[in-house]
Amino acid sequence: MTSLVSLVQALGIAYASGINLYATVTVLGLASRMGWIDPLPGGLSAVSHPVVIGIAAVLYVFEFVATLIPGVASAWETFHSLVRPPAAAALAAMTVWHGEAFVILAAALLGGGLGVVTHTTKLGLRYAIDASPEPLTNGASNVAELGLVASVSLFVWSHPWATLAFALVVLVVLVLMVRLIWRALRQVFRGRWMPGTGFLQGARCSAASPPPARDRIDD
Questions:
Q1: Beta partners for residue 193, in sequence order
Q2: How many structural domains is the chain composed of?
Q3: Which pTM does this prediction carry?
Q4: Would you place residue 32 in the very low, low, confident or very high pLDDT band (cuts 50, 70, 90)?
Q5: What's the domain range around 115?
């Protein structure tokens, strides 16, 4: 049972890392040093080192500012497709490093996969948000992202099952939201408008169609 709980906690950390690696490390490190959570298990305790916290905090601030700039935000998120999933797998493995070998391997595999899913979902959402030329939506997204990452990183230790379940529900909602947003954007790019009754209806052409031939009056 202890191994299973540790695996759930590892998946929670992988989930948060796939969304924002630097925020996850910063929150975990500060929370551990401030005594807000119990001592971190396994090799994960390394994130509480002042040097690690300082590097992660600087990178997070740099990321926060960079993702406020349209175009730069998409490039930043695309580059981190190479960073976040492997880091999520590594942090998940470090979380259960004190456990049996099969638990460590399972944490790395599942954590890496979950990191891919959360990062890819965020990437799709960021691409959609980045279509807007103003930084307000990017800033709001950054704040909401930090709130989600901090909540998962802190509460997964005291309420692992409830926290992971909540996180997965949020992930499903985000996947559906990304799908709807991209569907709407495709319709806009094709010169179509969305009906006011909802996203799920078929698109209609905004241009008026010519009257049928039988209704035309010959000169």
A1: 204
A2: 1
A3: 0.84
A4: very high
A5: 2-194
111 assigned to some structural domain: yes
Tell me which range, 93-97, 98-102, 131-135, 176-180, is most confidently predicted by mean pLDDT. Answer: 93-97
Q: Which secondary-structure segment (H or E) carries 192?
A: strand 192-193
Task: State the Cα–Cα distance between residues 195 and 201, nearest whole angstrom.
Answer: 7
Is 206 domain-assigned?
Answer: no
Q: What are phi and psi of 190, to 5 degrees?
A: -90, 5
Residue 203 domain-assigned (yes or no): no
Angle, helices 2-19 vs 21-34, to 10°: value is 130
Q: Would you say residue 86 has pLDDT above 70?
A: yes
The 8-class DSSP code of residue 48 comes to: G
Contacts of 95 (CB under 8 A, 6+ apart): 6, 9, 10, 13, 40, 41, 42, 44, 107
106's tokens = 């399972």
**Alpha-carbon separation of residue 154 from 3, 25, 39, 127 (angstroms):** 19, 11, 12, 28
172-207 pLDDT tens trace: 999 998 888 877 767 666 665 545 555 445 555 545
- Tell whether the model's pLDDT for residue 57 goes beyond 70: yes
Q: Give me the sign of the Cα torsion angle 46, 49, 55, 57.
A: positive
pLDDT tens for 123-152 read: 999 988 887 777 788 899 999 999 999 999
CA distance 39 to 47: 11
Residue 33 vs residues 40, 94, 135, 182: alpha-carbon distances, Å = 10, 18, 33, 42
